[in-house]
Amino acid sequence: MDETLREAADLVATAERVVIFTGAGISAESGVPTFREALTGLWERFDAAKLATPEAFDEDPALVWGWYEWRRALALTVAPNPGHIAATEILADAGHATLITQNVDDLHERAGATGVLHLHGSLFTPRCSACARPAALSPAPDGEPGRITPPPCDRCGAPIRPGVVWFGEALPTDGLEEAVEAAANADVLISVGTSGLVYPAAEIPQVTARMGGAVIQVNPEPTPLDPVARVNLRGPSAEILPALLRQSRPST
Ligand code: BV8
Ligand code: ZN
């Protein structure tokens, strides 16, 4: 590991434009289940990819809203881990830095990151499912809430929905364009904790590689990104990112 870590650290230390692209894996060590595990307890019998859709919400708004409110409550009870903090620091050291995440939690922000590009939205920006008016956050439920009837929009009365991008929904164009632009111009893109299966987000690291930038991957498991990565750092991000940060700084 230390030789690949050294190689990755050299790439980061000499890079002017750095992008960090994250998935659920960076929040795993904070205690937030990854997307595929996001169905614990009450949700075991559902498939995330089926629950995270407009059809599921239309069919049973209380089930879907309850799932997202449970995930929001969970996000509020956990803290950023050393991986989130090291990511903020690595970007602070770069001349030009962009943080792109597929995550809907706010752990990057709580680790001091600013201007985070949330390609798939956020648990903290609910809106009206009909007129898109932003809605206020109600106090998060405690325990396993199960079904919760979504509150009505105070303008048109339609049910409030989570501010996330569901399967089959388009990503916010401005966020995606900005992310592709940053990836295309990156000297280094560090992809952390993503299975690289969901498009178009999964394209982001491929854009960097196609444009000649170096992709560094941090993941304990192999992913479809392995052949694209210049360096594969196999392991948990809460351990690897702090080590990468230390190695990439000039030794005092
Ligand atoms: C779109 C928000 C078009 C919601 C998410 C066939 C049929 C149907 C659809 C499609 C299809 N083929 C392609 C599609 C499109 C579809 C898609 O890609 N499907 C896949 C499954 C094939 N994409 C879409 O629908 C997108 N929209 O295409 O719209 C369109 C265009 C114009 C107009 C209208 C429509 C929208 C996709 C967004 C879905 N929303 N999230 C929510 O959170 O509930 S996706 C969600 O899953 C995440 O955001 C993330 O993007 C994705 C994968 O999750 P990951 O973050 O990667 O997490 P995962 O659990 O998968 O992996 C965790 C990783 O961490 C693992 O690799 C693990 O090894 C690693 N790990 C674990 N521990 C650690 C660790 N790493 C480091 N350290 C650790 N400690
Ligand atoms: Zn409304």
Report on the architecture of this protein.
The chain has ten helices and eight strands. α6 (82-93) runs parallel beside α10 and α8 (173-185) packs parallel to α9. The protein has two domains: 2-29 and 79-120 and 170-248, 3-Layer(aba) Sandwich (Rossmann fold), CATH 3.40.50.1220; 41-77 and 125-164, SIR2/SIRT2 'Small Domain', CATH 3.30.1600.10. The strands form two sheets. Strands 3-2-1-6-7-8 form a six-stranded parallel β-sheet, sandwiched between helices. A two-stranded antiparallel ribbon has the order 4-5. The mean pLDDT is 94. With 252 residues, the chain is α/β, with parallel strands linked by helices. 44% of the residues are buried. It starts with a helix and ends with a helix. The chain has helices spanning 2-13, 25-28, 48-51, 54-59, 61-77, 82-93, 107-110, 173-185, 203-210, 237-248; strands at 17-22, 96-101, 117-118, 121-128, 160-164, 188-192, 214-218, 231-233. The structure holds ligand BV8 and zinc ion.
